[in-house]
TrEMBL record:
A Pfam cross-reference name: Fer4
Spans traversing the lipid bilayer: none
Gene Ontology cellular component list: cytoplasm
Cofactors named for this entry: [4Fe-4S] cluster
Biological source species: Methylomonas paludis
Domain 4Fe-4S ferredoxin-type: 1-29, 31-64
Domain of life of the source: Bacteria
Keywords: 4Fe-4S, Electron transport, Iron, Iron-sulfur, Metal-binding, Transport
Name listed for the protein in its UniProt record: YfhL family 4Fe-4S dicluster ferredoxin
Amino acid sequence: MALLISDECINCDVCEPECPNGAISQGEEIYIISADKCTECVGHHDTPQCIAVCPVDCISKDPENIEDKDSLYRKFVLLTA
């Protein structure tokens, strides 16, 4: 499952540099997470780093992009190949 940034985002820019896959970028109004690149940090860290650093807790699992840990790991392998 990819992660999703809600409209509570304050554009503080702390999440973007923490993403090891480069999945976070500035959208039109708030930061966005690319589901194609988001592995919830599987393969890199034990927990999603963007969630760990977000000061307003506006990042959660995206119900539109459900993936299990094995799928996230396979995506990590493809992204780092």
